[in-house]
Design goal:
single chain, about 30% helix, five-stranded mixed β-sheet, alpha+beta, about 425 residues
Length: about 425
Amino acid sequence: GLTSNMLEDLYVDEKGTLWAGTLNGLNKITFDSLGNLQVRTFTTQNGLPSNEIYQIKSKNGQVWLATGGGLVKFHEQPENKDSPAPILQSIEVNDEERKALATNDFSHEENNFEFHYLAVNYRMNGKIPYRYRLNETEDWEYTQTRTVNYPSLPAGDYAFEVQAQNEDRYWSESTTFEFCVLPPWWATTWFRLLVVGVLGCLGYSYYRYRIGLVEKENQIQKQITDLEKSALQAQMNPHFIFNCLNSIQNFILQNDKKKAVEYLSRFAKLVRHNLNASVNGTISIDEEINLLENYLALEQQRFEGKFDYEIIASETLKDKYMEFPPMLIQPYVENAIIHGVSDISRKGKIEITFSEENDLLSVNIKDNGKGFAQKNNPQKKHKSVGMTITKKRLALLEQNSNTPVQINTLVDKENNPNGTEVIIQITTKK
């Protein structure tokens, strides 16, 4: 609280008052009964001819000062506790003066504020200390200038407050200007509530969309499961089982035990393969070939060798392990036997080829029967349930959204039907 830390003289008068002289003014230091000190300063603002105090003496209670302005017989004046509050002269917003403010609300773009203020105290010779703050929760900022600038205020409520200090270091009452910088429209409460509402609606719509997809996937999966069961029933249909058992009975009646045992063994393997495939849900290429091998051998024996068959796997598949849904190929092979080569005059031939094309398993089933147009004669009472189910399964599984199954009628040189070619493309798990 001293006028300066550089002391020229230190003196204790008869009353026990400590006086400190500096080049910036005189300091009176008193102590109460508890030892607490109080400092009162005197400068040219209090009437001294100079702030340079070189020496202090007292005689009979009278204090004398040797100053840069001469000898002074010092008389202490009562403290002036009245400090006039400063006047807010003008306010500039975005470098534009606002004299008469109709409203204290400003847009978010009007955020550059400059305050001009002035306190009147003739004793201070214009060297009046000021302090200011923007909110009562902030600390005071001290200055001797009469201008304060806030170049970029964020949105919010403010109360600019400024005080002036008199010669006895008493602060005045505050001069206050309350104002508000409004937020931009995208930062207002109503807009945020609107955004929250829109996002909530979008989130709910997406939730309903996802629920719809899940329900649709569950429905498709249920259809697939039902079709899997139907495929097993269609593949192992009662007519085929009856024919197989009837053939075994004929071998036994003819006392051909070797053929009966061989036929029965193949029939048992076929039934076991079908059951395993239906339980596991997937089948490998080797297992599918074994299943078709047993099935074709049984049918070849049942039709007394009316056709030959061949199953070919390309070289690219020999070192690969692939799995795919079961019972997709057998219905087309059955159709080639029953409606293709079983009732033609020449020797029948069925050729099944497995290959890989564009990461898909391609299965080619070719026969030299009557052709697809003849097979699907409307006069025929038989309806190929297995093929219909397989087409639906391939569509549901989305094995190939373009052409999962291609059926082509083969012709001879005279352009007469000479067989059928079925191409199936299946997505596999490697």
